[in-house]
Design a protein that fits this description.
The complex is a heterodimer of chains A (about 260) and B (about 400). Chain A is α/β, with parallel strands linked by helices. Helix content of chain A is about 45%, strand content about 15%. A nine-stranded parallel β-sheet of chain A has the order 5-4-3-2-1-9-8-7-6. Chain A starts with a helix and ends in a 5-residue tail after the last helix. With about 400 residues, chain B is α/β, with parallel strands linked by helices. In chain B, strands 3-4-14-9-10-13 form a six-stranded mixed β-sheet, sandwiched between helices. In chain B, strand 5 (about 105-110), helix 5 and strand 6 form a beta-alpha-beta unit. In chain B, helix 4 (about 90-100) crosses helix 9 (about 200-205), helix 10 crosses helix 11 and helix 14 (about 330-345) packs across helix 15. The longest helix of chain B has 16 residues, at about 25-40. Classes of the chains: A alpha/beta (about 260), B alpha/beta (about 400). The interface of A and B includes residues 54 and 75 of A.
Chain lengths: ~260, ~400
Amino acid sequence: MTNRVQQLYAQKPKGLLSVYFTAGFPNLEDTVPIILELEKNGVDLIEIGMPFSDPLADGPTIQQSSEVAIRNGMTIPKLFAQLQDIRQHTQIPLVLMGYLNPVMQYGVERFLQKASELGIDGLILPDLPLSDYVREYKVVFERYKLSNIFLITPQTPERRIREIDTHTNGFIYMVSSASVTGGTSGQSVVNTTYFERVKGMGLRNPGIIGFGIHNQETFAQACHHASGAIIGSAFIKALAKEGSLSENIRTFIQSIRQKETA
Amino acid sequence: MKYSVDDNGFYGRFGGAYVPEMLYPNVEELRQNYLNIMAEPDFQEEMQSLLRDYVGRPTPLYFAKRLSEKYNTNIYLKREDLNHTGAHKINNTIGQILLAKRLGKTRIIAETGAGQHGVATATVCALMNLECIVYMGEVDIERQAPNVARMKMLSATVVPATSGSRTLKDATNEAIRDWINNPEDTYYIIGSVVGPHPYPDMVARFQSVISEEMKAQLLEKTGNENPDYVVACVGGGSNAAGAFYHYLDRPEVKLVAVEAAGLGIDSGESAATSVLGKEGIIHGSRTLLMQTQDGQVTEPYSISAGLDYPGVGPLHAHLHKSGRAIFESITDEEALQAVLELTRLEGIIPALETAHALAAIGRLGAKPDEVVVINLSGRGDKDLATYLNRFNFDDK
């Protein structure tokens, strides 16, 4: 049996739009409304960020949204409580993204079991080493039908990309360039050599490009080279704007999708 | 019990390399090369000559007569405060800058708390003509102004870390983010025995010169390489790692690690990780960590910027859990009293960090015939503003 992340690519091999938001931002109880609104606006996959005090791979936007979310009272038990009935309302693929320490404190196995019960499809834990995953956690992820999604960067050697491809089963998160999240403010994320090198490797898993994707143009460029793209920091900024949540989300997603290139 | 790092980068259950993929190639490059490079004869020769002629090693082991009389035991001070730049930190930056050069890196980044590691890094960068960027918490920039001025004079760029508690933890986060953003040309000189493997082991090796010299000096002065106690302060734990290193496998030598209790262990304003921390992951390493029940890192507090850190190196976490080292914690007030005591008894003004180790002497229960070595990790020049502010010298 496959999970929704694994099914997604079969249904829609190109132009996937994945959106990241920090749970608990801008307000503690916004999690479910944001998920439903994103689905309504045609987003393909949602990454729910679990805020951490020291997010090493994140730039200022996600750092700040995480600080606000923690101050608002967001915790893993709180997030799980909010997601209790989520599968009665939507079947959109859902991935939890966060750092290892809070998950460790909750208990890794207990966390995976609970996530699976709620209908979560996968996890992104950037600081969980591949070696630890393979040695300790892979069987547990598989038991609970959860995809563990790994990051690769332009500096990741081919041998390691292949190793990651062997051990993951959802998609590969292609970090667009050497940077923390939200790092690229320019119009281009084209790192053609790297994207095409990965494309040419014939991997089992589709690649989705993230980091620095922030508007229609960068989204279209990413989609040209991979199966889709992930938007995080730019979406967080949109959520922080004046106006209602649903209006901000609609305006932002429409601005990304306006000249669909799939 | 084994106290050195294993092949996977662990000390018992602590250590490892919990880094995002963006850092993997850099950390892996270092892991594969550090031992080989350090073993090269020309590396050793260059390092030894710099340690001798530039840093001023070996540092003296000084018998502190009046302090010994006061505590009725035999107290020796390992004078790391006499190193160039005023602390032990330069032992490590000399080693790492030579390593960075051999790896072909041209841009150096560092984090700093008290500013001693920042100054030591800026110093070796000036010496080697390499660009230097130092991340420092906004709070620390304020309380350690002389060191900020020294770094700038050495032509380093000092970047304030403005997130979180705006201290050492946050400066380290920013340095790690810089490394993620600049993976090709940049080398990150970590100042303590923290971070992903191989840093804790590498920094401990570069600092191990402290206990290597201690052995020879003690043999000469007391007829025995082994003291009864080695005492050192611990934030991340680099000076303690260096002072303990060659004694780790000699159980007859008691190792005493002294943490900062801040306003008191139970005050909520403390940095005593061994008491308040539980196992977790910080800065790429599995170690003891001050954190909430939900796994958010707690903001620590100590008057001493160099000890104001919510974690501790994985070696020390292992020494604590295994019982190999005794952990003590000293409050701000006790540390300040120890500053005055050493200054008035021996004419040495110690750094605030070091004062925590000194303040623990009375708790050792050392006997009249026993030998105690205190690692005098740094001098107090950088802390003069704090001392002037806390002590009313006009009355004395």
